[in-house]
Amino acid sequence: MATLDMKHINKKFGSGHTEVDALTDINFSVNEGEFVSVIGPSGSGKSTFLTIAGGLQSPTTGEIQIDGNNLNQLSAGQLTQLRFEMVGFILQTSNLIPFLKVKEQFTLVEKLSHQSLQERSTELLKSLDIWELRDKFPKELSGGERQRVSIARALTHDPSLILADEPTASLDSSHAFEVVQILAHEAHEAKKAIVMVTHDERMTQWSDAIYVIEDGKLRKK
Amino acid sequence: MYLAWKEIKYAKLRYALIVGVMVLVAYVVFMLTGLADGLADGNKQAILDWKSSAIVLSDDSNKISSASVLKRSDLDRVSVGEGEKTGVGAYATAVRHEGKSEKQNVSIFGAHQKSFVVPDVVKGRLYRNSHEIIVSQNLIDLGYHLNQKVKLGSQTKAYKIVGITRATKFSEVPVIYLNLNAFTQLKYGAQRFTKAADKPISMVVVKNRAADKVTVKNNGDGTKLDKMSVNTFIQNIPGYSAQNITLDTMIGFLFVVVTAIVGIFLYVMTLQKTVLFGVLKAQGVRTRYLALSIIGQSLIVGVIGVGLAFILGYLTSLVLPAAMPYAIKPVKWLLDGVVLVAVSIIGGLFSIRTVTKVDPVKAIGGE
């Protein structure tokens, strides 16, 4: 069973003569341990693709399953819970909370999930080489450091699916490569399904599969 | 609550400012409450000292003691036992040192020395004749002393202070008690009354019997009597209700101000955080948690602000001049504090809708 499975996804915005097809008949799946890149220029529908894959909005038609859960059958509350438990987001700028120190970002997840994640976050911080940064606020970190913390944050509660939205957009190339390598490593070692959306083709070299999205249509490269 | 508190700690200056504003407004609320209670006490304290239950005035007085004229014989027209009613004369005048022209306003009550309205003497003794008076401690504080001879009103004769009672006020001025004959003399001067029963008093004070259980005989050609509860009597002290309504309205308005200030502040903070809220929602953080976080912040701002204002209000009471009527009633202050915290929470509620409307989709794509 694929971790993320999207079948015949269509997404339309607007109605009547203002109707726009954002996504057309998308079929896509990622298995655990797989690192998949989706590349496309801006306006190609890759953000819409990612929000639908993560259950942030529902498709007009089609079916999505995350770890066997059919998102169409979940209530808004259940969907939020599913996102919290099974999906990790890594965003373009940062998904960090500006007023929490690095280690407190993890404390928040701990408090929200009512389970002890102390050991896991320590291990993550150490393996991503950001342990020394634990007492700093996000604004005191460099872009690359911030993204590494973001990755750690997305991995804390052990989600099966990681969705990365242009994680390298705000980084110089050497830091960008480093971040992508970390993602590839996590997918392979920690057996995560990771989808990375990017416009930068150089970032796809560590991917297990590359898809191209253009005018709302997805094809394998 | 974790997020709420961490953000306050991080954005110390911003939250210090809003707490500062909260402290100032809460401080004004406490000051006004203190003043309102002080003024109210000053107006009515002597009446409360009587521990009476009802008061009978002449009907034409319109419930004002100084305008009421009864006869001592009217006491018999009030249907309660002898020990539970007493005739009292009320008169407002000024006291001065013998040989000096400087005057001090006082409220005079005339009553039989064994009457229950006459307070206990804490120093000296009770009056025994119409030349002796007892005064409240707050008059002593103004430079008068025991065994001193003083002049009252336009009387040429001197009165001797033979006793001191606990500090008390009526109509905001110190209180003097003297006997009924002295009262008659003071208020009616040389006017002669043929019978003792015809001598005037201002009111009949009743204890242990609620006003609606008291009946007054209103037949015949005597002055029409009007019975009322002590509370009604106090509400009709000239200026008493007006002053309370004014101060209470100001306090009430300040509650609205707090709601607006905290509401606007947290709303602006919320608007600044919509992107962050979007990200958190995308990550599966429930709207309820974010909403509670904002409510938590309004609670923290309210509690800290009120706490500091409480301390400030108390410290102020220590340095206020004695002439300023100011009374700290813990129950009232506590109530003020609870309402202040409650209205700041209501202020926080204004932002909830905005948080609810934040769309997590916006977090993706950097839009």
TrEMBL record, chain A:
GO terms for biological process: amino acid transport. Keywords: Amino-acid transport, ATP-binding, Cell membrane, Membrane, Nucleotide-binding, Transport. InterPro entries: AAA+_ATPase (IPR003593), ABC_transporter-like_ATP-bd (IPR003439), ABC_transporter-like_CS (IPR017871), ABC_transpr_LolD-like (IPR015854), MacB-like_ATP-bd (IPR017911), P-loop_NTPase (IPR027417). GO terms for molecular function: ATP binding; ATP hydrolysis activity; transmembrane transporter activity. It is a peripheral membrane protein. Pfam families: ABC_tran. One of its GO terms (cellular component) is plasma membrane. PROSITE patterns: ABC_TRANSPORTER_1, ABC_TRANSPORTER_2. The keyword Membrane applies. CDD domains: ABC_MJ0796_LolCDE_FtsE. Residues 4-221 form the ABC transporter domain. It comes from the Bacteria. It is found in: Cell membrane. The keyword Transferase does not apply. Belongs to the ABC transporter superfamily. HrtA family. Part of the ABC transporter complex hrt involved in hemin import. Responsible for energy coupling to the transport system. This is Putative hemin import ATP-binding protein HrtA.
TrEMBL record, chain B:
Keywords: Cell membrane, Membrane, Transmembrane, Transmembrane helix, Transport. Signal peptide: none annotated. It is a multi-pass membrane protein. One of its GO terms (cellular component) is plasma membrane. Its main location: membrane. The chain crosses the membrane at residues 15-36, 250-268, 289-313, 333-352. Residues 250-360 form the ABC3 transporter permease C-terminal domain. It is found in: Cell membrane. InterPro entries: ABC-4/HrtB_transporter (IPR051125), ABC3_permease_C (IPR003838). Belongs to the ABC-4 integral membrane protein family. HrtB subfamily. Part of the ABC transporter complex hrt involved in hemin import. Responsible for the translocation of the substrate across the membrane. The complex is composed of two ATP-binding proteins (HrtA), two transmembrane proteins (HrtB) and a solute-binding protein. This is Putative hemin transport system permease protein HrtB.
